[in-house]
Structure prediction request, 578 residues.
Amino acid sequence: VSVQLASYLHEQVRRAGADRAFGVPGSYIMPVWQTFKANPRIVLARHESGAAFMADGWSRTTGRPGVVLATIGPGLTNLVTGVAGAYRDSVPLVVVTGQASTSSFGRGAFLESYGMDRDTPPHALFTPITKKSLEITDLRNARFLIDSAFSLAVSGRPGPVHLSIPVDLQAAELPDVGPADGQAEPTAAAPPAALAVGQARDPGVLTDPGFAVAAELAAAARPLILAGWGVASRRLGGDLAALAEQLGAPVVCTAKAISCLPSTHPLHAGHLGPGQRSDLVPFLMSYDPDVVLLLGVSLHAYYAAPLAPLLSRAKTIRVDIDPDQIALRHRPDLAALGDARDLLPRFTAALARMSEPRHTPPEPFSAVLRAFRDRRTKAAAAQPAAWRGRTSMSGTIARLGAVLPPDAVVVPDAGNHWLDTIALHEPARPGGIMLNCGLGAMGWGIGAAVGAALADTGRTTVCITGDGSMLMHGSELSVAAEYGCDLIVLVFNNQAHGRVQLGQRQDLDGDLLGTGLPDIDFARWMGALGLPAETVDRPGDMEAALGRALKTDGPFGIEVRCHPDEVPACMRDWIEDV
Ligand SMILES: Cc1ncc(C[n+]2csc(CCOP(=O)(O)OP(=O)(O)O)c2C)c(N)n1
Ligand SMILES: [Mg+2]
Prediction:
């Protein structure tokens, strides 16, 4: 059957399980753009990085590849921040950009990007920030390259894949030769599952990881689990809890994996990285684990450095889907290569055959863990609602958990409000905090929250952002208004790039050069964008405002006016003071 390239692409997006694509149009993408009328349909973002942020939040919510459409030239360059952020955080996207006609390559057509005359070949921009940057130059390969983009995005360690398509080819009929290289036509309408790497053939890597890892764990006296994004991104909270309970092992996670377990889980000992408790490492040292199970962690310096003494003393087991990660920054004693989704159940099944379930760590450590966890709860509850007469950022965020429905997902942006959310918000369910940890671009939280809200209309999404981030990407909120998304937006207005200004106060002699912002009426701005919105000026008014936001169908904005001097809880000895 003959089919236009653009229609074939649209059909593959549908088969990948995406009901929307996010983008900004331009001449060179129009034949593709025009096919996204329905299932999947286009969502017009206000900026290309906003589109990528939305696709990122949508993908994290659905577990399917997010799709982005943009044009060449400025469309391409505007995409860079959003795509780079998804790459750093291993979020699968398929990013499709237009390109000038093949017949004009090298001749200097408007915005042509062949790379001959001060134009930027798309692959030069996208190669370092995607798993692969591909360009279709021959219709006979189009099916193969489109299919490859989708399978690459979700296979192994997920991430964005870029596909550049010249405008003349977008509208062309695909030759009726079937996929290249004997590839079978995809048949299933179901979204492709993330593909497991399977067992490695490398020497030193186990061929039966389930059994050998379980044997090591069963023999451990004081096991510790360190969970990373490899667990959280697969939403394996239930499997992780089952394994931890079976072993009686406390769980620490990376900031990226912050809500891999509900914070109420009795074995959850907290997170490493930004917003980390100052008493976490001494606590873990007192436990003195003899076996540490590292699940899907890259061991960036801020996670690995505090753990170095523990990791050098204990036997370590690393589990990762990516052979490049399995010994990165720390060479384990034992390694298992594969998807945590397949391996965790294998570990628990093998363990069940070999040892009695423990559920809690041995006393007296169990009591120490309880006291350690309680201290955080008390410290959060002790955050005053006001700071120098204004509504406190920390106090507001610390109280959110008590007000929000248990399945709410909180999406912080970049800034002091990000740190306070990581340290103080205790989500009731796994996945209750959606976090950008890799690039931390300002405005990501706004686009990602809109994308998450568009993906999941059954629960409340809460975007926590700042005045600086709003000024960069606040316009994307008009998308939430257009679609009537169930989204609450908290804008902490401290009239500053607070995160940076705090550094000036603390380390740069208090010279607040170029970090103050004018006093902007964000409630009015959100109103103009189509969201009902109000301002909270007095500390006592926050709870009632949140109550109104929760009762309102569709989006609701709250501008919280706070003090520029306020220091996030984790930077002022909040735990020590309890
Ligand atoms: C695109 C981008 N530019 C610069 C930064 C560096 N940066 C991190 S936080 C921050 C200030 C954010 O201000 P605001 O959104 O008002 O949050 P606050 O810290 O005041 O809570 C800046 C400039 C960044 N993360 N992203
Ligand atoms: Mg600010």
